């Protein structure tokens, strides 16, 4: 898609006001952000370049620029969320946009209004960007097919969570700089994790080696063949956590969801903790400069021990901060793209 610059495109510089550093966005070609499988490595690098500028904004006493002044951003969450929802709201407000936050339980959805009808209503109200989280995989794709308004996927079912994948990779890059040869271990329920899927796509062409570690019941059937078919040869699968952690640079346990605990995917919580919890003793097997990450929310004492969650190697809180910068970058980028 060729990028067409709108005459009304928001500028990063406004006379008489503090602004962001000048940036080049000629590489950007996305009206929507639905997943990372169609992102080129140069586009991810561009998101990071802009996020660096946003980090500068977040370090100021007044965390606000007029970049998206006059724009309206709608936040539609059909699932509970703390980190993602709050960071998108802050990202929009820090960029000067007006926000509309919709709770499905208190909207016309509760009266039977369809997703598409709700979205078209927002488009008719001239909302510029819609951020959507939905329990059904593919819902943001359906939204994008029916709208001219830009759509950002904030998590859809078990499918994708692109902004989380970007902020995770951004956190790793800010820590290590050169990613080539680094080992990332993602541990837990890979089958149902939208975070794991977006991380798999986001880390390709980075030089990172990703190890997925989980019980066999948490690895999708046929996944090795799928990885090979998609050319994702930077990803491997390991069922033994002690082996997976050897020499790891990044360790990322995933939340063990309660519904999985009761669905026969694991024999017991105690067994899962014994075999797959990231604790202080296990972390010693990793590399000397290992960092610990977690997409949140954490079940302390289950997939991660308290001492590891808050150790000096933990960048979990930094992920939250980086999430605001990444989402600011995405909101800025989609605001200037038209069909």
Characterization of this structure:
This protein has 339 residues and is α/β, with parallel strands linked by helices. It has 2 domains: 135 residues, Aspartate/ornithine carbamoyltransferase (Rossmann fold), CATH 3.40.50.1370; 154 residues, Aspartate/ornithine carbamoyltransferase (Rossmann fold). 36% of the residues lie in helices and 13% in strands. It has a 5-stranded parallel β-sheet with strand order 7-6-5-8-9. Helix 2 links the parallel strand 1 and strand 2. The N and C termini lie close together (8 Å). The N terminus is likely disordered.
Topology:
Blueprint: H1 41-58, E1 72-77, H2 83-94, E2 98-103, H3 115-124, E3 129-134, H4 139-146, E4 150-156, H5 162-176, E5 183-187, H6 194-202, E6 209-213, H7 223-229, E7 235-238, H8 241-244, E8 250-253, H9 258-261, H10 269-276, H11 280-283, E9 291-292, H12 306-309, H13 316-335
Helix pairs in contact: 1-13, 2-13, 3-4, 5-6, 5-13
Give short descriptive properties of this protein.
Rossmann fold, 36% helix, 339 residues, 4-stranded parallel sheet, alpha/beta, 2 domains, 13 helices, 5-stranded parallel sheet
Q: Radius of gyration over alpha carbons?
A: 20 Å
Largest sheet, order of strands side by side?
A: 7-6-5-8-9
- Total number of helical segments? 13
CATH H level, superfamily name of the largest domain: Aspartate/ornithine carbamoyltransferase
Count of distinct strands: 9
**Fraction of residues in helices?**
25-40%
| Range of strand content | 5-15%
Query: Mean pLDDT across all residues, rounded?
Result: 89
The CATH architecture term of the largest domain is 3-Layer(aba) Sandwich
CATH topology of the largest domain: Rossmann fold
User: Would you tell me the structural class of the helices and strands?
Assistant: alpha/beta
Report the top-level CATH class of the largest domain: Alpha Beta
End-to-end separation: 8 Å
């Amino acid at each position: 898609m060729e990028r067409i610059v709108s005459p009304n495109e928001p500028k990063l510089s406004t006379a008489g006001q503090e602004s962001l550093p000048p940036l080049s966005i000629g590489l950007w070609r996305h009206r929507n952000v639905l997943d990372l499988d169609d992102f080129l490595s140069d586009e991810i690098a561009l998101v990071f370049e802009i996020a660096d500028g946003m980090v500068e904004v977040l370090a100021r006493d007044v965390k606000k620029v007029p970049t998206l002044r006059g724009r309206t951003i709608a936040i539609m969450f059909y699932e509970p969320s703390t980190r993602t929802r709050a960071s998108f709201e802050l990202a929009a407000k820090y960029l000067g946009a007006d926000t509309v936050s919709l709770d499905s339980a208190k909207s016309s959805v509760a009266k039977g209004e369809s997703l598409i009808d709700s979205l078209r209503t927002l488009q008719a109200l001239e909302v510029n960007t819609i951020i959507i989280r939905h329990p059904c995989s593919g819902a943001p794709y359906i939204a994008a097919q029916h709208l001219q308004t830009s759509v950002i996927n904030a998590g859809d079912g078990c499918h994708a969570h692109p902004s989380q994948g970007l902020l995770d990779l951004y956190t790793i890059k800010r820590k290590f700089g050169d990613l080539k040869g680094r080992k990332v271990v993602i541990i837990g329920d890979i089958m149902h994790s939208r975070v794991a899927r977006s991380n798999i796509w986001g880390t390709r062409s980075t030089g990172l080696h990703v190890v997925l570690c989980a019980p066999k019941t948490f690895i999708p059937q046929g996944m090795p063949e799928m990885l090979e078919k998609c050319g994702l040869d930077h990803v491997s699968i390991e069922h033994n956590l002690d082996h997976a952690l050897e020499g790891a640079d990044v360790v990322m346990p995933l939340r063990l969801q309660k519904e999985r605990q009761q669905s026969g995917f694991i024999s017991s919580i105690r067994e899962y903790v014994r075999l797959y919890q990231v604790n202080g003793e296990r972390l010693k097997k990793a590399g000397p400069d290992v960092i610990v990450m977690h997409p949140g929310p954490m079940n302390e004492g289950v997939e991660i021990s308290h001492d590891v969650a808050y150790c000096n190697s933990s960048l979990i809180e930094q992920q939250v901060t980086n999430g605001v910068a990444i989402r600011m970058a995405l909101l800025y980028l989609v605001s200037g793209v038209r069909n």
